[in-house]
Design a protein that fits this description.
The structure is a homodimer.
Chain A lengths: L9 H27 L7 H27 L11 H4 L3 H17 L5 H7 L2 H13 L6 H17 L13 H27 L5 H23 L1 H7 L7 H23 L2 H23 L5 H21 L3
Helix pairs in contact in A: 1-11, 1-12, 2-9, 2-11, 4-8, 4-9, 6-7, 6-8, 7-13, 12-13
Chain lengths: ~325, ~325
Amino acid sequence: MWILSAPSGSASMSVVTLALTVLTSSQAILIVWSKRAGKYEYSVTTANFMVETLKCALSLAALTRIWRSEGVTEDNRLNTTLDEVIVFPIPAALYLVKNLLQYYIFAYVDAPGYQILKNLNIISTGVLYRIILKKKLSEIQWAAFILLCAGCTTAQLKSNSDHVLQTPFQGWVMAIVMALLSGFAGVYTEAIIKKRPTRNINVQNFWLYIFGMIFNAAAILVQDFDAVMNKGFFHGYSFITVLMILNHALSGIAVSMVMKYADNIVKVYSTSVAMLLTALVSVFLFGFDLSLAFFLGSTVVSVAVYLHSAGKLQR
Amino acid sequence: MWILSAPSGSASMSVVTLALTVLTSSQAILIVWSKRAGKYEYSVTTANFMVETLKCALSLAALTRIWRSEGVTEDNRLNTTLDEVIVFPIPAALYLVKNLLQYYIFAYVDAPGYQILKNLNIISTGVLYRIILKKKLSEIQWAAFILLCAGCTTAQLKSNSDHVLQTPFQGWVMAIVMALLSGFAGVYTEAIIKKRPTRNINVQNFWLYIFGMIFNAAAILVQDFDAVMNKGFFHGYSFITVLMILNHALSGIAVSMVMKYADNIVKVYSTSVAMLLTALVSVFLFGFDLSLAFFLGSTVVSVAVYLHSAGKLQR
């Protein structure tokens, strides 16, 4: 449970960033593993609800420990004000809109094309980070960010990736809107969490996840109400499903920690490196082939990571 | 003939670099054009000889003008010493060995694979530039150089480029040896030209090209003696052949100018950018398709060019 205790130094920050990277990459590997083992019949909405519930429970557990050792203070009490809590549903709502759009974009783009277009998230996060949080990146860091996007896309190139250039205009618009929504949700979460720097992160998480539970409960009612009523809430759950829920919950908490103690830029870098690690580990676990494009993309991403920290010194 | 007058300021240097870029890209376009117009039956060795002869003549023409305006001085007289001239055959000899190896490497790699492996030249030039000329690049500039290599390779990726990863060990060794020879020849030429900074570049070129003529005359004797004897020296020459010879001669002189007033790093950047320009122009001239890989590679190369100059400020 070290991940739930607030890290203070930059060493702890590195640990959280590393945790996010490892959790994100094992996430993708779990998905591949679950697909390999056969299609699972669980409903995705109930699993999402369980992830939010678990995150809520873990935040409460951490808070209980803190209350016992430090006592209840202004910063760690669970009570909140309307002024504090009113903004918490917004990221959850943004993600919901994005997920709805996701159903429609597949009319214009296929799944591998969508994977490529998702790298627009990197650019949108950088731009919104600059505009909304008004934080500056050095010119070298901007260059690194463009490289991160180009490198990730290169690493994902397949022989038929050029199809994505034939995406119709509506597809591009939806992809850009989705990238903006996802970037905005991330940057907005960071703004909410950082607005009260002394407020305990577990309280902030608790409220974020409460709204996550509400939105996902609504999704169950809309999408899977009949299935849940007829087959039961946990129908089709397996050991891997439980592992995936656990993993999503822990990486969700790691993302919050990165938002509190670092920023969205660090988040984008660690999830990008995670994507590359996933591909590497998959080679050993599942015998996937590494392409020249993957090798070139990884090189560019590695240089981008180096430049992001080298660029700091210039400020 | 502006290209033949020694540029003094950095503005003139930019002009020479731009000239090299434009000449190199039009070179490739002329080759595509000549292939499209039908196969030409001229012998490559006589064309190479004509290029060296033309470069020699242009250098002499420039020298005559200089002698008339400035008079003959220690720095612009054509006479040379054994000490000065003894090193001039070495680059020509290195290129000859490299060209001989080129026949053998195709036993292990196909032509598109060879195009990919040729990007090793970028790395070998950087490394030899550092070791032999003992000049330093900043860390940002090294990062930029790695990006240049990765970006150029990405831009050239085709759907079957992964074949190159199956290159047998001998093929890799030959590709690396060829990259080292080509990098060494470039760096060595720079060292020769810069050893006497006040010596007129046209005199230095004259002696370089004299040895070029000698080596190419030997190549005619070995490879095309019968063809030249039976069909004549200029058999199969057309308007495009003449244009290509003119282009090669002018870009050869531009390379020398870049070596004298800038360095091999600038040369590598301008020929890389030329490669991308060629592809862009080919889209309009010949209706080629631009791939996503080309777009990503060009982005990475552009960022590399920016970082190379941004990296200078840090010194």
